[in-house]
Amino acid sequence: MKGIRSVLYMHWRSVGSWVYIPWLILGSVFLINYGWRSFHQDSQSTNDVGNMVIFIYLFTVAWIFNGQLFAFASGLSIKRMHFVLGSVMAAILISIGSSLLLMLLIVVENMTNGWGIDWHTFSWKVTQTFAYWEQFAIYLLVFLCLILLGFFLSSIVIRFRKRGLLVFGVLLYVFFLVISNTSVNGFDHEEAFWTWIGQHGLLVFYSLIPAIILLLFGCYMLFMRRAIIRS
Amino acid sequence: MHVKLSKVRKAYGKNVVLNDINMVLEKEKIYGLVGRNGAGKTTLLKIIAAQLFPSEGTVQVNEENPFENEAILSQLCFVKESQTYPDHFTVKDILLTAKATFPLWDETFCQALVARYNVPVKLRMRKLSRGMRSVVGVIIGLASRAPLTIFDEPYLGMDAVARQYFYDQLLADYADHPRTIILSTHLIDEVSELLEHVIVVKEGRILMQEDVETLRAGAVTVTGEKGKVAAFIQQQHVLSSQTLGNVTNVMIFGTISRQERLQAEAEGLSFSAVSLQKVMVHLTDQEKGSA
């Protein structure tokens, strides 16, 4: 268990990259946008996806850190499974923290009627009508999903080198090609299907995202189990 | 810690890196692992440290497979010259993480080494010079006090003074806290005073495993008249030979009894000691090594 604590400690020592830098970037984007919008106000309510920057940033950091921290952890003779579990625990903590911060900003955004200019940048349009706890759950799942996706893609590179990533990309492309082809030609009631998805979007989300998270976690664990450092 | 490798083979496709490796490392001894570049030393060490998987054969540390074995891995520290560190980590981050990882970590010793080597702890690792990066690895290896400590050419970029301080500290700390140490190195003469046992690797195979004293005693240079030297070395393992006029200088490796030596000296032959470095060079030399 000491290995898991060490990995958590490594992520803690990386708090600048996990927390400070992404929130500084988000803050800067917010301030620039706020300044610009304050001078170019129109009567319409606006809603953008300004918070996407933090999701993309954390996904990228997860991808980079997994490789770098694994090489270091391996040098310290930390068990591979301890590395995986420590990293996933860090991902959960970072997701919870980031979601809480985002929720705090959303609450302020709502209380100030969109920062005084009816501008909603931290909340997504589709989730604005949801209860706060539901929004928190959605952000938490999306953060976790993206961080694990970064870990998973990095584990493909560690285990199978860049060629593995290429194969994965091709397989993913074929998968979506088959799915899209099937949905166009295969379903007699295609329209009804998409209508149902539209009506039960939240149910689909709550079922699909945890399933993807579990799948990513499983594959990440599987690939890292026999991962080696090639330096 | 006790290490045992049986019939270990490692191949990447058709490229065989290690073949038929059988060796036993006893606990609380200092081993030197020597061999030319590409001989398979690092691969062998990585297999012992469970960072690589053997294609065939078994590895046991304290009678257990080290792969994903916390009881073994927590007692093992592997310092290698190719170690990479997270880009954003400072030296302080590295040392604090090592401290949090190794159960027998000696923080006082670590701080003493940091001060002695004048390590800039606030700098990021990637900003350090090659030598200073090696120093950080050496500090981790020494302060970890891991019962199985492996150094794979840890001194790259370190100057002679820094290297000598490392050897001194290693020996002093080993005396106080005996542990199994494997030191892979090219600078054999520098570390010959540290080593108790030498393992020579050549082309993926173990060429020789000997106590340092046996190696020292076994290797001598015989100098004298050509014919007399030729007669003397008939039953000996010749490592190298040089002839100038009627005088021949031959480096041999084997056992010479006191009586044989006295008799040879009476016939005009002279004997001189050979450095371990020279013995290794000739043993591992591709053309002459097979002699």
Write up what this structure looks like.
The complex is a heterodimer of chains A (231) and B (291). Chain A has 231 residues and is mostly helical. Chain A has one domain. In chain A, 81% of the residues lie in helices and 2% in strands. Chain A contains eight helices and two strands. Chain A has a two-stranded parallel sheet. The relative contact order of chain A is 0.13. The mean pLDDT of chain A is 88. With 291 residues, chain B is of the alpha/beta class. Chain B folds into two domains: 201 residues, Rossmann fold (3-Layer(aba) Sandwich), CATH 3.40.50; 68 residues, Alpha-Beta Plaits, CATH 3.30.70. Chain B has eleven helices and 13 strands. In chain B, a hairpin with a 2-residue loop joins strand 8 and strand 9. The longest helix of chain B is centred in the middle third of the chain and has 17 residues. Chain B is globular and about 65 Å long. The C terminus of chain B is likely disordered. The interface between A and B is medium-sized, with 29 and 33 residues.
Attribute tags:
heterodimer, A: about 230 residues, mainly alpha, two-stranded parallel sheet, 8 helices, about 0% strand, globular, B: about 290 residues, alpha/beta, Rossmann fold, Alpha-Beta Plaits, four-stranded antiparallel β-sheet, 11 helices, about 30% strand, disordered C terminus, ABC_Transporter_VariousFunc (chain B)
Topology:
The complex is a heterodimer of chains A (231) and B (291).
Chain A: H1 2-13, H2 15-39, E1 46-47, H3 52-75, H4 80-111, H5 114-118, E2 119-120, H6 132-185, H7 190-199, H8 201-225
Parallel strand pairs in A: 1-2
Helix pairs in contact in A: 1-4, 2-3, 3-4, 3-6, 4-6, 4-8, 6-8
Chain B: E1 3-12, E2 15-25, E3 30-34, H1 41-48, E4 56-61, H2 70-73, E5 76-80, H3 91-101, H4 107-117, H5 130-144, E6 148-152, H6 160-176, E7 180-184, H7 188-191, E8 197-202, E9 205-211, H8 212-218, E10 219-225, H9 226-232, E11 237-244, E12 247-253, H10 258-266, E13 270-273, H11 276-284
Parallel strand pairs in B: 3-7, 3-8, 5-6, 6-7
Antiparallel strand pairs in B: 1-2, 1-4, 8-9, 10-12, 10-13, 11-12
Helix pairs in contact in B: 4-5
